[in-house]
Amino acid sequence: MNAADLLKIMKKRKENIFIKLLIEGEEQLERLSLIKEMQIEPVSRRVYHADFYEIRMDHKLTIDVPLRFTGTPVGVLNGGDLQHLKRDLKVSCLPTALPDFIEVDVSGLGYRQLD
């Protein structure tokens, strides 16, 4: 796969991108896949390796879905800090039901004074 084309696709969506691969050989095969892992050279930011995971639309897949936090917590308004240790959740579903992200409203969160 052309690395420049892959980067164009990745700029549109950062996570869980379905890619249709055309595999040439004795006969041409078409496979739906997800990028499982991508390695980028740290200095030049060029892609030098990508692993693809073949998916089927009639089988569930388990994948990490990013969390998107919305709102301003009451605790932050009162001088506290919001620290979230979890940035994604594992979701198991059919590919057609896979969300782009899970929205979490944190506006009701308070804080507790530590002694």
The stretches of 5 or more residues where confidence is low (pLDDT under 50) are: none
Average pLDDT, all residues = 84
Q: Which shape, going by the Cα principal axes?
A: elongated
Report the radius of gyration as a whole number of Å.
19 Å
Overall SS class: mainly beta
Question: What letter string, H or E per element, gives the SSE order?
Answer: HEEEEHEE
Helix content: 10-25%
Biggest sheet details: 3 strands, antiparallel
Share of β-strand residues: 35-45%
- How far is the first residue's CA from the last residue's CA? 56 Å
| Number of contiguous helices | 2
The counted number of beta strands is 6
Placed side by side, the strands forming the largest sheet appear as: 1-2-3
Describe this structure in words.
12% of the residues lie in helices and 40% in strands. The chain has a three-stranded antiparallel sheet. The chain has two helices and six strands.
List the defining traits of the structure above.
single chain, 115 residues, mainly beta, three-stranded mixed β-sheet, 40% strand, elongated
Furnish the topology, listing elements before pairings:
Blueprint: H1 3-12, E1 18-23, E2 29-40, E3 47-54, E4 61-70, H2 74-77, E5 88-93, E6 102-105
Parallel strand pairs: 4-6
Antiparallel strand pairs: 1-2, 2-3, 4-5
